[in-house]
Amino acid sequence: MYLEEIIEDIYLEGDKFECKSILNRDDIVGWLKSIAGFANASGGDFYIGVEDKTNKLIGFDRKAADNERNYFNNIINEHLTPRPQMKISFVRYEIRNRERFIIRVTIPESSVKPVILKYKIYLPFL
C-alpha cells in the first residue's frame, strides 16, 4: 500500500514533501535539517512511517506511533530554536485487517527566522 492511496495530491519527495520509514536515532541531524528547512522556506509536509523514494507505507501500531511522535517532539524541542510551529497528526489506515498509523507533520513557514539546528558533536580527546 502506498501513501497516495490514502492521501490525495501526494508526489515523490521534493522541496515541500519528505518521508522517513522511521526516525534514524543515529543520524538525527539528517531529518532535523529537513524540518528546519521547511520552516525557513515556504513550509512542507514530513511523513514518518513511509518509505522514502517509493512512498510505500511502513506504518506503526498504535503504541509505536505514539512513541515515535513523542521521540520526534523531544528531539525537536532539544535541537531546533525557535521551535517551529507544527501540526502533528496520526493518519490511520488498515492493511490485512490490521490497524496501522503513519505520522504526518505539517510545518508552515516560520514567522521567526532563521530556525536554527543546534546540535553538538563531542569528539574523543586525541
Characterize the structure shown.
- With 126 residues, the chain is an alpha+beta fold.
- It has a single domain (15-109), classed as Translation Initiation Factor IF3 (2-Layer Sandwich).
- It contains two helices and six strands.
- The strands form two sheets. The chain has a four-stranded mixed sheet with strand order 1-2-5-4.
- The longest helix is centred in the middle third of the chain and has 18 residues, at 62-79.
- It is globular.
Give the topology, please:
Blueprint: E1 17-20, H1 28-40, E2 44-48, H2 62-79, E3 80-81, E4 87-95, E5 98-107, E6 116-117
Parallel strand pairs: 1-2
Antiparallel strand pairs: 2-5, 3-6, 4-5
CATH architecture: 2-Layer Sandwich
Major sheet: order of its strands? 1-2-5-4
Round the mean pLDDT to the nearest integer and report it: 92
What is the CATH level 1 assignment?
A: Alpha Beta
CATH fold descriptor: Translation Initiation Factor IF3
Order of helices and strands: EHEHEEEE
Tell me how many strands there are.
6
How would you classify the helix and strand content by structural class? alpha+beta
Give helix % range.
10-25%
* Number of separate domains: 1
How large a portion of the residues is in β-strands, by DSSP E?
A: 25-35%
